[in-house]
Amino acid sequence: MKLAGQTIELLKKEIILEWRSKYAFNGILLYIVSTVFVCYISFNLNPGFKQSAGYPIVWNILFWIIMLFASVNAVAKSFLQENKARLLYYYTIAHPQAIILSKTIYNTLLMSLLSVLALVVYLLFFPNKVDDLLYYFIVVLLGSVSFSTVFTMISAIASKAGNNGTLMAILSFPVVIPVILILVKVSKAAMDGIDRSLSLNNIGTLLAINVIVIASSLILFPFLWRD
Amino acid sequence: MKFIYKTWWKVLAVVLVFYTLISGMLFQVPRLDILHETIRNLYFHVPMWMAMLTALVTSVFFSVLYLRTGKEEHDLAAVECVNTGMIFYGLGLITGMLWAKYTWGEFWSGDPKQNSAAIAFLLYCAYLVLRNSIDEEQTRAKISAIYNIFAFPIMIVLLFVLPRMTDSLHPGGAGGNPGFNKYDLDSHMRLVLYPAFIGWSLLSLWIATIRYRIRLIEHKKNAIN
User: A178 to chain B, minimum CA–CA distance in Å?
Assistant: First the structure.
Protein backbone atom coordinates (compact mmCIF):
# COMPACT_ATOMS: atom_id res chain seq x y z
CA MET A 1 0.00 0.00 0.00
CA LYS A 2 2.97 2.22 0.55
CA LEU A 3 3.69 2.04 -3.17
CA ALA A 4 0.17 3.15 -4.07
CA GLY A 5 0.31 6.04 -1.62
CA GLN A 6 3.63 7.24 -2.96
CA THR A 7 2.43 6.90 -6.54
CA ILE A 8 -0.63 9.01 -5.83
CA GLU A 9 1.44 11.67 -4.06
CA LEU A 10 3.92 11.84 -6.93
CA LEU A 11 1.10 11.94 -9.45
CA LYS A 12 -0.48 14.83 -7.56
CA LYS A 13 2.85 16.63 -7.64
CA GLU A 14 3.17 16.12 -11.39
CA ILE A 15 -0.32 17.44 -12.00
CA ILE A 16 0.16 20.46 -9.73
CA LEU A 17 3.46 21.31 -11.40
CA GLU A 18 1.82 21.05 -14.80
CA TRP A 19 -1.18 23.06 -13.65
CA ARG A 20 1.02 25.90 -12.48
CA SER A 21 3.05 26.24 -15.65
CA LYS A 22 0.81 24.50 -18.23
CA TYR A 23 3.96 24.32 -20.31
CA ALA A 24 3.77 20.72 -21.55
CA PHE A 25 0.07 20.89 -22.23
CA ASN A 26 0.05 24.20 -24.09
CA GLY A 27 3.28 23.43 -25.87
CA ILE A 28 2.12 20.11 -27.25
CA LEU A 29 -1.32 21.43 -28.05
CA LEU A 30 0.26 24.20 -30.09
CA TYR A 31 2.55 21.62 -31.69
CA ILE A 32 -0.44 19.53 -32.74
CA VAL A 33 -2.46 22.49 -34.01
CA SER A 34 0.43 23.83 -36.05
CA THR A 35 1.20 20.39 -37.50
CA VAL A 36 -2.42 19.91 -38.47
CA PHE A 37 -2.48 23.36 -39.99
CA VAL A 38 0.69 22.74 -41.97
CA CYS A 39 -0.82 19.52 -43.29
CA TYR A 40 -4.08 21.32 -44.08
CA ILE A 41 -2.35 24.02 -46.08
CA SER A 42 -0.07 21.58 -47.89
CA PHE A 43 -2.89 19.26 -48.87
CA ASN A 44 -5.08 22.17 -49.91
CA LEU A 45 -2.52 23.09 -52.55
CA ASN A 46 -3.77 20.05 -54.46
CA PRO A 47 -7.34 20.71 -55.51
CA GLY A 48 -9.61 17.71 -55.60
CA PHE A 49 -7.70 15.87 -52.89
CA LYS A 50 -10.70 15.66 -50.58
CA GLN A 51 -12.77 14.00 -53.27
CA SER A 52 -10.10 11.50 -54.24
CA ALA A 53 -10.45 7.83 -53.43
CA GLY A 54 -7.38 7.69 -51.22
CA TYR A 55 -8.55 10.47 -48.91
CA PRO A 56 -9.92 8.29 -46.05
CA ILE A 57 -6.73 6.21 -45.97
CA VAL A 58 -4.48 9.26 -45.92
CA TRP A 59 -6.76 10.84 -43.31
CA ASN A 60 -6.37 7.93 -40.93
CA ILE A 61 -2.62 7.43 -41.37
CA LEU A 62 -1.84 11.15 -41.19
CA PHE A 63 -3.67 11.39 -37.89
CA TRP A 64 -1.63 8.61 -36.34
CA ILE A 65 1.63 10.03 -37.60
CA ILE A 66 0.79 13.42 -36.11
CA MET A 67 -0.11 11.69 -32.84
CA LEU A 68 3.12 9.68 -32.91
CA PHE A 69 5.34 12.73 -33.18
CA ALA A 70 3.25 14.74 -30.73
CA SER A 71 3.51 12.01 -28.12
CA VAL A 72 7.24 11.54 -28.63
CA ASN A 73 7.66 15.22 -27.91
CA ALA A 74 5.23 15.28 -25.02
CA VAL A 75 6.54 12.23 -23.23
CA ALA A 76 10.23 12.83 -23.89
CA LYS A 77 9.93 15.77 -21.52
CA SER A 78 8.91 13.61 -18.59
CA PHE A 79 12.45 12.64 -17.69
CA LEU A 80 14.41 15.20 -19.63
CA GLN A 81 12.97 18.17 -17.77
CA GLU A 82 13.91 16.80 -14.36
CA ASN A 83 17.24 18.03 -13.17
CA LYS A 84 19.65 15.67 -11.52
CA ALA A 85 19.37 17.05 -8.00
CA ARG A 86 15.62 16.81 -7.98
CA LEU A 87 15.72 13.21 -9.22
CA LEU A 88 18.17 12.39 -6.47
CA TYR A 89 15.74 13.88 -3.96
CA TYR A 90 12.87 11.70 -5.26
CA TYR A 91 15.00 8.63 -4.93
CA THR A 92 15.65 9.32 -1.29
CA ILE A 93 11.97 9.69 -0.46
CA ALA A 94 10.13 7.37 -2.85
CA HIS A 95 10.26 3.88 -4.25
CA PRO A 96 11.58 3.75 -7.86
CA GLN A 97 8.50 1.84 -8.99
CA ALA A 98 6.32 4.62 -7.63
CA ILE A 99 8.30 7.11 -9.71
CA ILE A 100 7.93 5.25 -13.00
CA LEU A 101 4.28 4.42 -12.27
CA SER A 102 3.40 8.02 -11.46
CA LYS A 103 5.17 9.25 -14.59
CA THR A 104 3.40 6.66 -16.73
CA ILE A 105 -0.01 7.50 -15.30
CA TYR A 106 0.61 11.21 -15.63
CA ASN A 107 1.70 10.84 -19.25
CA THR A 108 -1.30 8.66 -19.96
CA LEU A 109 -3.66 11.31 -18.60
CA LEU A 110 -1.87 14.10 -20.45
CA MET A 111 -1.82 12.21 -23.74
CA SER A 112 -5.46 11.14 -23.47
CA LEU A 113 -6.53 14.73 -23.02
CA LEU A 114 -4.27 15.94 -25.81
CA SER A 115 -5.30 13.24 -28.25
CA VAL A 116 -8.98 14.00 -27.78
CA LEU A 117 -8.31 17.68 -28.44
CA ALA A 118 -6.13 16.71 -31.39
CA LEU A 119 -8.93 14.62 -32.85
CA VAL A 120 -11.34 17.55 -32.55
CA VAL A 121 -8.90 19.96 -34.22
CA TYR A 122 -8.08 17.39 -36.87
CA LEU A 123 -11.75 16.78 -37.67
CA LEU A 124 -12.25 20.53 -37.93
CA PHE A 125 -9.62 20.93 -40.64
CA PHE A 126 -10.00 17.55 -42.31
CA PRO A 127 -13.68 16.69 -42.28
CA ASN A 128 -14.26 13.01 -42.76
CA LYS A 129 -17.07 10.55 -42.33
CA VAL A 130 -16.24 8.23 -39.44
CA ASP A 131 -18.92 5.57 -39.25
CA ASP A 132 -18.28 4.39 -35.71
CA LEU A 133 -17.15 7.59 -34.04
CA LEU A 134 -17.39 6.23 -30.48
CA TYR A 135 -15.20 3.27 -31.34
CA TYR A 136 -12.71 5.48 -33.15
CA PHE A 137 -12.62 7.66 -30.06
CA ILE A 138 -11.91 4.65 -27.84
CA VAL A 139 -9.14 3.52 -30.18
CA VAL A 140 -7.59 7.00 -30.02
CA LEU A 141 -7.63 6.85 -26.22
CA LEU A 142 -6.10 3.37 -26.29
CA GLY A 143 -3.47 4.61 -28.69
CA SER A 144 -2.49 7.49 -26.44
CA VAL A 145 -2.24 5.11 -23.47
CA SER A 146 0.01 2.75 -25.45
CA PHE A 147 2.22 5.58 -26.68
CA SER A 148 2.64 6.91 -23.15
CA THR A 149 3.58 3.58 -21.60
CA VAL A 150 6.20 2.85 -24.26
CA PHE A 151 7.66 6.35 -24.45
CA THR A 152 7.87 6.85 -20.69
CA MET A 153 10.23 3.92 -20.25
CA ILE A 154 12.22 4.80 -23.37
CA SER A 155 12.59 8.41 -22.25
CA ALA A 156 13.90 7.13 -18.92
CA ILE A 157 16.52 5.11 -20.80
CA ALA A 158 17.34 7.96 -23.18
CA SER A 159 17.68 10.47 -20.36
CA LYS A 160 20.36 8.26 -18.82
CA ALA A 161 22.19 8.04 -22.12
CA GLY A 162 22.99 11.66 -22.79
CA ASN A 163 19.55 13.16 -23.25
CA ASN A 164 19.47 13.54 -26.98
CA GLY A 165 16.42 13.49 -29.18
CA THR A 166 17.93 11.25 -31.85
CA LEU A 167 18.41 8.46 -29.36
CA MET A 168 14.83 8.80 -28.20
CA ALA A 169 13.56 8.37 -31.75
CA ILE A 170 15.91 5.50 -32.60
CA LEU A 171 15.08 3.58 -29.45
CA SER A 172 11.35 4.14 -29.44
CA PHE A 173 10.27 3.80 -33.06
CA PRO A 174 10.99 0.09 -33.50
CA VAL A 175 9.20 -0.56 -30.23
CA VAL A 176 6.21 1.53 -31.19
CA ILE A 177 5.79 0.21 -34.74
CA PRO A 178 3.75 -2.86 -33.70
CA VAL A 179 1.49 -0.53 -31.71
CA ILE A 180 1.06 1.79 -34.70
CA LEU A 181 0.33 -1.14 -37.01
CA ILE A 182 -2.48 -2.38 -34.80
CA LEU A 183 -3.84 1.12 -34.20
CA VAL A 184 -4.02 1.97 -37.89
CA LYS A 185 -5.74 -1.34 -38.61
CA VAL A 186 -8.30 -1.03 -35.82
CA SER A 187 -9.03 2.65 -36.40
CA LYS A 188 -9.55 2.02 -40.12
CA ALA A 189 -12.03 -0.69 -39.17
CA ALA A 190 -13.80 1.79 -36.88
CA MET A 191 -13.83 4.36 -39.69
CA ASP A 192 -15.42 1.93 -42.10
CA GLY A 193 -17.96 0.92 -39.49
CA ILE A 194 -16.91 -2.72 -39.48
CA ASP A 195 -18.48 -4.75 -36.68
CA ARG A 196 -16.62 -4.11 -33.42
CA SER A 197 -16.32 -7.75 -32.46
CA LEU A 198 -14.04 -8.36 -35.45
CA SER A 199 -11.26 -6.14 -34.10
CA LEU A 200 -11.43 -7.35 -30.49
CA ASN A 201 -8.55 -9.66 -31.28
CA ASN A 202 -6.34 -6.71 -32.22
CA ILE A 203 -7.42 -4.73 -29.17
CA GLY A 204 -6.44 -7.73 -27.06
CA THR A 205 -2.96 -7.75 -28.59
CA LEU A 206 -2.63 -4.03 -27.98
CA LEU A 207 -3.55 -4.47 -24.32
CA ALA A 208 -1.14 -7.39 -24.06
CA ILE A 209 1.69 -5.23 -25.44
CA ASN A 210 0.81 -2.57 -22.88
CA VAL A 211 0.89 -5.08 -20.05
CA ILE A 212 4.27 -6.40 -21.23
CA VAL A 213 5.71 -2.89 -21.48
CA ILE A 214 4.41 -1.79 -18.08
CA ALA A 215 5.57 -4.99 -16.42
CA SER A 216 9.06 -4.73 -17.89
CA SER A 217 9.29 -1.03 -16.96
CA LEU A 218 8.34 -1.85 -13.39
CA ILE A 219 10.96 -4.59 -13.24
CA LEU A 220 13.71 -2.68 -15.03
CA PHE A 221 13.34 0.87 -13.73
CA PRO A 222 14.75 0.14 -10.25
CA PHE A 223 17.98 -0.93 -12.01
CA LEU A 224 17.97 2.09 -14.27
CA TRP A 225 17.83 4.93 -11.78
CA ARG A 226 20.72 3.79 -9.62
CA ASP A 227 23.93 5.54 -10.55
CA MET B 1 30.99 -20.55 -17.73
CA LYS B 2 33.00 -23.79 -17.86
CA PHE B 3 30.60 -24.98 -20.54
CA ILE B 4 32.05 -22.74 -23.23
CA TYR B 5 35.48 -24.35 -22.97
CA LYS B 6 34.16 -27.89 -23.48
CA THR B 7 34.71 -29.61 -26.83
CA TRP B 8 31.90 -32.14 -27.08
CA TRP B 9 29.13 -29.73 -28.02
CA LYS B 10 31.23 -28.10 -30.71
CA VAL B 11 31.83 -31.52 -32.27
CA LEU B 12 28.11 -32.17 -31.99
CA ALA B 13 27.39 -28.86 -33.74
CA VAL B 14 29.70 -29.71 -36.64
CA VAL B 15 28.32 -33.23 -36.98
CA LEU B 16 24.72 -32.05 -36.92
CA VAL B 17 25.28 -29.24 -39.41
CA PHE B 18 27.04 -31.59 -41.82
CA TYR B 19 24.28 -34.13 -41.33
CA THR B 20 21.64 -31.56 -42.26
CA LEU B 21 23.67 -30.33 -45.23
CA ILE B 22 23.92 -33.83 -46.68
CA SER B 23 20.56 -35.27 -45.69
CA GLY B 24 18.81 -32.02 -46.49
CA MET B 25 19.99 -32.29 -50.07
CA LEU B 26 19.48 -36.02 -50.49
CA PHE B 27 16.50 -37.14 -48.39
CA GLN B 28 13.01 -37.54 -49.77
CA VAL B 29 10.83 -34.47 -49.56
CA PRO B 30 7.09 -34.22 -50.24
CA ARG B 31 6.29 -32.89 -53.70
CA LEU B 32 4.09 -29.82 -53.37
CA ASP B 33 2.86 -27.28 -55.88
CA ILE B 34 4.73 -23.97 -56.13
CA LEU B 35 7.40 -25.17 -53.71
CA HIS B 36 8.76 -28.26 -55.51
CA GLU B 37 12.40 -28.76 -54.60
CA THR B 38 12.74 -25.36 -52.91
CA ILE B 39 11.10 -26.97 -49.89
CA ARG B 40 14.61 -28.08 -48.98
CA ASN B 41 15.31 -24.48 -48.05
CA LEU B 42 13.21 -25.18 -44.96
CA TYR B 43 16.25 -26.98 -43.55
CA PHE B 44 18.36 -23.85 -43.95
CA HIS B 45 15.96 -20.94 -43.58
CA VAL B 46 14.11 -21.88 -40.39
CA PRO B 47 17.22 -23.04 -38.45
CA MET B 48 18.77 -19.59 -39.02
CA TRP B 49 15.96 -18.04 -37.01
CA MET B 50 16.32 -20.75 -34.41
CA ALA B 51 20.03 -19.93 -34.14
CA MET B 52 19.23 -16.23 -33.89
CA LEU B 53 16.68 -16.89 -31.19
CA THR B 54 19.17 -19.00 -29.24
CA ALA B 55 21.77 -16.25 -29.40
CA LEU B 56 19.29 -13.56 -28.37
CA VAL B 57 17.83 -15.60 -25.51
CA THR B 58 21.37 -16.20 -24.26
CA SER B 59 22.02 -12.49 -24.56
CA VAL B 60 18.97 -11.65 -22.45
CA PHE B 61 20.10 -14.25 -19.93
CA PHE B 62 23.48 -12.53 -19.61
CA SER B 63 21.87 -9.09 -19.43
CA VAL B 64 19.77 -10.27 -16.49
CA LEU B 65 22.88 -11.75 -14.94
CA TYR B 66 24.70 -8.46 -15.43
CA LEU B 67 21.97 -6.51 -13.67
CA ARG B 68 22.10 -8.96 -10.77
CA THR B 69 25.86 -9.21 -10.36
CA GLY B 70 27.40 -6.23 -12.15
CA LYS B 71 30.26 -8.27 -13.57
CA GLU B 72 31.60 -6.78 -16.76
CA GLU B 73 32.14 -10.16 -18.48
CA HIS B 74 28.41 -10.71 -18.49
CA ASP B 75 27.90 -7.49 -20.41
CA LEU B 76 30.55 -8.53 -22.96
CA ALA B 77 28.84 -11.92 -23.34
CA ALA B 78 25.48 -10.23 -23.86
CA VAL B 79 26.73 -7.89 -26.58
CA GLU B 80 28.59 -10.63 -28.41
CA CYS B 81 25.48 -12.81 -28.34
CA VAL B 82 23.53 -9.94 -29.92
CA ASN B 83 26.25 -9.52 -32.55
CA THR B 84 26.07 -13.21 -33.38
CA GLY B 85 22.29 -13.06 -33.38
CA MET B 86 22.50 -10.24 -35.93
CA ILE B 87 24.64 -12.40 -38.23
CA PHE B 88 22.03 -15.14 -38.18
CA TYR B 89 19.34 -12.51 -38.54
CA GLY B 90 20.94 -11.44 -41.79
CA LEU B 91 21.33 -15.02 -42.95
CA GLY B 92 17.70 -15.76 -42.09
CA LEU B 93 16.57 -12.74 -44.07
CA ILE B 94 18.76 -13.64 -47.06
CA THR B 95 17.72 -17.30 -47.20
CA GLY B 96 14.11 -16.21 -46.81
CA MET B 97 14.40 -13.62 -49.57
CA LEU B 98 15.94 -16.12 -51.98
CA TRP B 99 13.18 -18.59 -51.20
CA ALA B 100 10.57 -15.88 -51.62
CA LYS B 101 11.97 -15.00 -55.06
CA TYR B 102 11.40 -18.53 -56.32
CA THR B 103 8.04 -19.18 -54.70
CA TRP B 104 6.29 -15.82 -54.25
CA GLY B 105 7.98 -14.05 -57.15
CA GLU B 106 9.66 -11.15 -55.34
CA PHE B 107 12.62 -10.83 -53.03
CA TRP B 108 10.54 -8.61 -50.79
CA SER B 109 6.84 -9.34 -51.01
CA GLY B 110 5.73 -7.18 -48.11
CA ASP B 111 4.69 -10.23 -46.15
CA PRO B 112 3.82 -9.35 -42.52
CA LYS B 113 6.53 -11.61 -41.21
CA GLN B 114 9.15 -10.07 -43.50
CA ASN B 115 8.15 -6.59 -42.40
CA SER B 116 8.17 -7.58 -38.75
CA ALA B 117 11.62 -9.08 -39.19
CA ALA B 118 12.84 -5.80 -40.66
CA ILE B 119 11.44 -3.84 -37.72
CA ALA B 120 12.96 -6.24 -35.20
CA PHE B 121 16.26 -5.77 -37.04
CA LEU B 122 15.95 -2.02 -36.40
CA LEU B 123 15.28 -2.79 -32.75
CA TYR B 124 18.61 -4.51 -32.35
CA CYS B 125 20.42 -1.93 -34.47
CA ALA B 126 19.09 0.60 -31.95
CA TYR B 127 20.62 -1.51 -29.19
CA LEU B 128 24.02 -1.32 -30.87
CA VAL B 129 23.69 2.44 -31.47
CA LEU B 130 22.68 2.94 -27.84
CA ARG B 131 25.86 1.17 -26.76
CA ASN B 132 27.99 3.46 -28.86
CA SER B 133 26.31 6.59 -27.55
CA ILE B 134 27.48 6.10 -23.97
CA ASP B 135 31.12 6.50 -23.04
CA GLU B 136 31.17 5.47 -19.43
CA GLU B 137 31.59 1.68 -19.36
CA GLN B 138 29.43 0.78 -16.41
CA THR B 139 26.58 3.06 -17.41
CA ARG B 140 26.79 1.66 -20.92
CA ALA B 141 26.66 -1.90 -19.67
CA LYS B 142 23.72 -1.19 -17.38
CA ILE B 143 21.60 0.81 -19.80
CA SER B 144 22.18 -1.51 -22.73
CA ALA B 145 21.32 -4.49 -20.54
CA ILE B 146 18.07 -2.79 -19.62
CA TYR B 147 17.25 -1.98 -23.23
CA ASN B 148 18.12 -5.53 -24.27
CA ILE B 149 15.66 -6.99 -21.78
CA PHE B 150 13.07 -4.40 -22.74
CA ALA B 151 13.45 -5.12 -26.47
CA PHE B 152 13.28 -8.89 -26.24
CA PRO B 153 9.52 -9.31 -25.54
CA ILE B 154 8.78 -6.73 -28.24
CA MET B 155 10.87 -8.78 -30.68
CA ILE B 156 8.92 -11.92 -29.74
CA VAL B 157 5.61 -10.13 -30.28
CA LEU B 158 6.82 -8.80 -33.62
CA LEU B 159 8.16 -12.05 -35.01
CA PHE B 160 5.94 -14.69 -33.50
CA VAL B 161 2.63 -13.09 -32.53
CA LEU B 162 1.67 -10.30 -34.94
CA PRO B 163 2.32 -12.15 -38.23
CA ARG B 164 0.11 -14.98 -37.03
CA MET B 165 -2.82 -12.65 -36.60
CA THR B 166 -3.02 -11.53 -40.21
CA ASP B 167 -2.89 -13.08 -43.63
CA SER B 168 0.66 -14.15 -44.08
CA LEU B 169 2.43 -16.10 -46.76
CA HIS B 170 4.35 -17.77 -43.99
CA PRO B 171 2.80 -20.88 -42.47
CA GLY B 172 0.92 -20.50 -39.20
CA GLY B 173 -0.93 -17.36 -40.28
CA ALA B 174 -4.65 -16.83 -40.11
CA GLY B 175 -5.03 -16.80 -43.88
CA GLY B 176 -2.89 -19.83 -44.46
CA ASN B 177 -0.32 -20.48 -47.08
CA PRO B 178 -1.33 -21.96 -50.40
CA GLY B 179 2.08 -23.59 -50.71
CA PHE B 180 2.22 -25.52 -47.51
CA ASN B 181 1.26 -25.50 -43.89
CA LYS B 182 2.64 -27.15 -40.82
CA TYR B 183 0.65 -30.32 -41.43
CA ASP B 184 2.64 -30.97 -44.57
CA LEU B 185 5.75 -31.37 -42.51
CA ASP B 186 6.00 -35.16 -42.65
CA SER B 187 8.13 -37.33 -40.42
CA HIS B 188 10.98 -37.45 -42.95
CA MET B 189 11.35 -33.71 -42.83
CA ARG B 190 11.26 -33.60 -39.05
CA LEU B 191 14.15 -36.05 -39.07
CA VAL B 192 16.28 -33.37 -40.70
CA LEU B 193 14.69 -30.19 -39.38
CA TYR B 194 15.01 -30.82 -35.65
CA PRO B 195 18.69 -31.84 -35.75
CA ALA B 196 19.23 -28.73 -37.91
CA PHE B 197 17.69 -26.58 -35.16
CA ILE B 198 20.06 -28.00 -32.58
CA GLY B 199 23.08 -27.97 -34.86
CA TRP B 200 22.76 -24.36 -35.99
CA SER B 201 21.86 -23.17 -32.50
CA LEU B 202 25.01 -24.76 -31.11
CA LEU B 203 26.99 -23.25 -33.96
CA SER B 204 25.68 -19.78 -33.14
CA LEU B 205 26.61 -20.28 -29.50
CA TRP B 206 30.06 -21.40 -30.60
CA ILE B 207 30.56 -18.29 -32.70
CA ALA B 208 29.35 -16.18 -29.78
CA THR B 209 31.76 -17.84 -27.36
CA ILE B 210 34.71 -17.27 -29.69
CA ARG B 211 33.76 -13.61 -30.11
CA TYR B 212 33.28 -13.33 -26.36
CA ARG B 213 36.70 -14.82 -25.66
CA ILE B 214 38.39 -12.44 -28.11
CA ARG B 215 36.54 -9.57 -26.47
CA LEU B 216 37.65 -10.78 -23.05
CA ILE B 217 41.31 -10.83 -24.12
CA GLU B 218 41.00 -7.32 -25.54
CA HIS B 219 39.32 -6.21 -22.38
CA LYS B 220 42.11 -7.62 -20.23
CA LYS B 221 44.74 -6.06 -22.46
CA ASN B 222 43.14 -2.65 -22.14
CA ALA B 223 42.77 -2.87 -18.38
CA ILE B 224 44.96 -0.65 -16.26
CA ASN B 225 46.93 -2.54 -13.69
Answer: 7
* Mean pLDDT, residues A34-45: 91
User: Number of residue pairs across A and B with CB atoms under 8 Å?
Assistant: 76
The 3-state DSSP class for residue B12 equals helix
Inter-chain residue contact A201 with B165, CB threshold 8 Å: yes
- CA dist list (Å): A73 to A121, A122, A164, A166, B130: 18, 18, 12, 12, 19
| Amino acid type, A122 | Y
**Closest chain B C-alpha to A143 CA, distance in angstroms:** 17
Identify the pLDDT of residue A119.
Answer: 92
A38-44 LR contacts (CB < 8 Å, sep 24+): A39/A66, A39/A125, A39/A126, A40/A125, A40/A126, A43/A126
Q: How many domains does chain A have?
A: 1
- B123 chain-A contacts, CB cut-off 8 A: 174-175
Q: Provide the residue ranges of all domains of chain B, joining segments of one domain with +.
A: 2-222
The residue type found at A188 is K
Per-residue burial over B52-62, b if 16 or more Cβ lie within 10 Å, else e, is bbbbbebbbeb
* Cβ-based neighbour number of residue A204 at 10 Å: 12
* Distance from C-alpha of A144 to C-alpha of B187, rounded to nearest angstrom: 48
Smallest Cβ–Cβ distance between A223 and the set B129, B134, B142 belongs to B142
pTM: 0.86
Question: Predicted ipTM?
Answer: 0.83
**Residue A211: Cβ-neighbour burial (10 angstroms; 0-12, 13-18, 19+):** exposed
- Return the sign of the alpha-carbon dihedral for residues A33, A37, A43, A48: positive
Q: Which of B136, B150, B155 to mutate to test the interface with A (most CBs of A within 10 A)?
A: B150
The one-letter code for the residue type at B3 is F
Query: Nearest Cα to B80, choosing from B59, B64, B98?
Result: B59
Nearest Cβ partner for A178 among B129, B147, B158: B158
A219 chain-B contacts, CB cut-off 8 A: 149
- Cβ-defined contact of A174 to B153 (cutoff 8 Å): no
Q: If you count DSSP H runs as helices and E runs as strands, how many of each does chain A have, helices first? A: 8, 0
CB contact under 8 A, B139 and A223: no
Give the domain extent around A135: 2-225
Decide which of A196 and A210 is more confident.
Answer: A210
